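Teaching assistant here, posting this on the class forum so everyone can see the example we discussed in section. The complex has two components, and the goal was to see what a joint structure prediction looks like when all of them are supplied at once.
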Amino acid sequence: MIRDITLGQYYPVNSIIHRLDPRTKLIFTFVYIISLFLANNRYTFLLAAVVMVLYIALSRVPVSYMLKGLKGILVFILASVVINMFFTKGDPWIDIGVLHISWQGFRTAVYTMARVIMLVLGSSVLTYTTTPTKLTDGLERGLRGLSRLKIPVHEISMMIGIALRFIPILVEELNKIMKAQQARGANFDQGSVFKRLKNLIPVFVPMFVSAIRRANDLATAMEARGYQGGEGRTKLHPLRYTAADAVGYLLTFIYMASMIVIRIMITRGMVEQLEQMKPPV
Amino acid sequence: MIQAEHIQFEYFRRDEDGNVTEMVEAVKDVSMRVKEGEFVAIIGRNGSGKSTFAKLMNALLTPTEGSLIIAGYDAMDEDNVWEIRKSAGMVFQNPDNQIVGTVVEEDVAFGMENQGTPEDEMLIRVAESLERVGMTAYRESSPNHLSGGQKQRVAIAGVLAMHPKCMIFDEATAMLDPAGRAEVLHIARQLNDQENITVLYITHEMEEVTVADRVCVMYEGELVMEDTPRSLFAKREELLRYGLTIPTVTKLAAELAARGISLPADIMNVDDFVSGMNQVMAYKNADAIRNVRSSQGLTEGRMDYSYSKPMNHSSGGMEEEERARLAMTEGLVCNHISFDYHPKTIYSERVLQDVNLTISKGEMIALIGHTGSGKSTLIQHMNGLLRPTEGQIFYEGRDIYEKGYDRSYLRSKVGLVFQYPEHQLFADTVLNDVCFGPKNLGLPLIEIQQRAFEAIRLVGLSDAVYDLSPFELSGGQMRRVAIAGVLAMKPDTLILDEPTAGLDPAGRRELFEILESLHANGMTILFITHDMDAAAEYADRILVMNQGRLVYDASVEEVFSHGKELRELGLQTPSVTLLMQELRQNGYPVPTAIYRLEDAVQSLEAYLRAE
């Protein structure tokens, strides 16, 4: 049924990563993405890859699930590989007819691909291991400081929460209204773009009316239960850091520090000897 | 608990420029006192001011005049608003639109979170409240996966967790099936009995009213009657005048009384009826009861089992002869249809299993089954909105999925009215909305308009509504406009999904009258209903769905003779059948194969006269 659609793609197993505070995971994901753009050589990439493998293993989300997330962006990855490979200038390495692949081109292609894949995996683990509610909670708490800048953080997160609850209901309703108008002879997949848009009026007007009616009902129900905005509210399950989160933050810090150290060492040429293991040009 | 003195509530309707066009007096000079621990039912037509009154009791609205004290707080004083809402919790009509949390326990905690209740306290109270409504097992479920009745129980738990002194149920059962209704009513009654919580219970179901200590009737914003259910139902004429009705059993007693059989006037449930009968018989001669002639002699001539068909025969391959036979059938044929949601994926779910059924022209059929049994899915197959995963559908002898078949023709001939069809209205005027269907058929303008006029007349609306916006009409009128929108396609078959859902008793009566007159003019009608009395009263044939299968397809008499099996499917028999069975168990040799009010009246009259 349509109501079974879960937003995000939470994968319910009980792993250490699942139990981490959403804020810890958000910070780690953020740091990890930055680190991917710092990475510029095989050692930094290797480190990032090892960390990602460990992260996925700890999350206990099946690898097949992870790969499914990558399938959607396969075309994008391939395109970027091809463009990088053939259009980066540098010493010719392999010639296929008129096409030249330079060593630099090949390297950029591989690095870009690695960057995109690990970026997607990193954010997938976040959504696989964190329910949408926890995620909004984490954002609300994490961004609480912004409310001093008059940004309504609580209200925004309440809105996201309500949206998450109502999207499946509205999708179901949309489906029903479309069918009801079809039963009256409406046709949604014929005619020019303009005509099709016009044909959707009998769907959009009732959807709009219904959304407003629901919003009105919900606002009344919330008021009846004493909702007065974020001030003075408590939470049934407030976010609370545990020892695991401390370890998480520590590991995140160590990881980032290592990335920076390795990168600096390389630019300073301290591991130049290792760099000489280049393949023959 | 509640002291309302001459309260008044009015609001202004404005046009686009903000000018007042009309002043609406939703509640007029109502005085009512509710004692602590009372169970008060409020009934009245749609739009009679019940809901507005309920909102006044929860300080969602403030009376424009009068004085109102709720749980010791003066409701006229803005500062008391939050205290009042804490003491008087409210459960609303639409289960979907009052749940805030994405997880059950979070929703139950929502009210407490708003009050800043400490976490430990909340955890205890969440567990407590869920336990009291029997939803502990669903603590961590998503509300989207619950049934309507379960959602309402979650909403009740959310109110309970705030430890209210008073609970207001604003048509909380209107959108539920009979099982869900029973759950909610049972919990309301229990909270009243065991926790001494004051209950204000607004409803359209007369059977629910019978459990109240007191009933208030509202009509056009005024409180017009106030009495115990027992004495209230004795005033049948008055109730009918206010667009209401009385329980079927009370109706039966009144009919018998009108024929000179002096049953007590205050019968409101089966037990009353039985004791009423006992009185009558004791008056005549107690000994005669056991000596009467056997019940066989009394069996009505209306019984007819010939319609019954063998069910669930296995689905073999389609024989040529079979195909030829189906091709001869004039009406609508579902031939071994099965339907899966998301076929061939891991989410695949079979919702229809081998349904076999023929609808001949001119029939009047009721489709019953509990929520989720596949009723709505089945009817969507009948005009080609859903395509069966297996099996065929024939209309007028042609397979509707054969090459070159024009399904827009099918849709014009088999009209489908969804549940709450008024939610599909969209046009600026009633006339334009009704014209939508015929316009899609590509008819000439003059024909379109003629059909629209005709359809609006058929649903009993006057030509004064043509130029009104459909959104200005009352709920009942909007529903009729929506039905007119389907009738304007000139269907020969009309299929309706719970056409009376959410309507008040008078609205339901009027709607069935419309269906009966359409049927009398030759239209084939199939309606889904949860109301067994209506199914027995209006249909000739009944289809019963359970877990995606068609388990019964037979006459009213045949289907309802399987009372025990129906109960196992979570369904009931008509209330007169229940009554006759109860009488029989109490030693009265009356026939139990009685399904319609009229038959019950005749049969009981004959029995009592013979005594």
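For the discussion questions: Confidence is low (pLDDT under 50) at residues 286-318 of chain B. Chain B touches chain A through 67 residues (CB under 8 Å). Think about how each of these relates to the inputs above.
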